[in-house]
Design brief:
Layout lengths: L8 H12 L4 H6 L5 H16 L6 E6 L4 H9 L9 E11 L6 E9 L3 H11 L15 E7 L2 E7 L5 H8 L5
Length: about 170
């Protein structure tokens, strides 16, 4: 099945990020004006639009992470899950026709009781220096976003790809 994503809200989000030349993840996340499920959908649409901007035919596959809490605990410690109410996951793989491998994006949405709780959890997460998830089979980069009472962990197993690099640059911390 082939998908062509029309211009939409996520395009506006990307244009806003580019115009602002946002250097900090907290600033980029403030542009997400919706709560977590909608924010995750916006991020997914933004990723799809960037990766498929060349208009080549592609297939989009969606799934869920096998054990998102274990992934979080391995890299960030079990303590960071103490105040989390729910964890939702989605995995997106975009396979372009004629390309040997797919571009990947994972989104974990951690929902807290309040925006203040999410903000309190967000601070220490920014201090981890490596920018890569621990104990993964391949080098997996990540970025955090805060959207209201939720934190979104964006991660990708796709390492050498200009479009994926461009996507992560939109949310980069410096």
């Amino acid at each position: 099945m082939k998908y062509f994503i029309p211009f939409g809200l996520s395009r506006q989000l990307l244009i806003g990020l580019c115009l602002q030349n946002t250097p900090h993840i907290a600033q980029a996340s403030s542009m997400l004006q919706t709560q977590a499920p909608d924010a995750a959908e916006q991020v997914q649409q933004a990723f799809t639009e960037i990766v498929t901007a060349d208009k080549k035919p592609f297939q989009l596959a969606k799934s869920e992470a096998a054990n998102p809490k274990a992934l979080l605990a391995k890299t960030f410690g079990k303590k960071m899950l103490a105040r989390v109410q729910t964890v939702h996951s989605r995995e997106i793989r975009i396979q372009k026709t004629g390309q040997p491998s797919a571009q990947h994006l994972g989104i974990l949405t951690l929902t807290y009781a309040s925006a203040a709780d999410a903000k309190a959890a967000f601070g220490p997460l920014q201090k981890k220096k490596s920018g890569h998830l621990d104990h993964t089979k391949i080098l997996t980069r990540y970025q955090w976003l805060q959207s209201g009472a939720s934190l979104l962990l964006l991660y990708s197993e796709t390492m050498i790809n200009d479009q994926v690099d461009h996507f992560f640059a939109q949310y980069a911390t410096k």
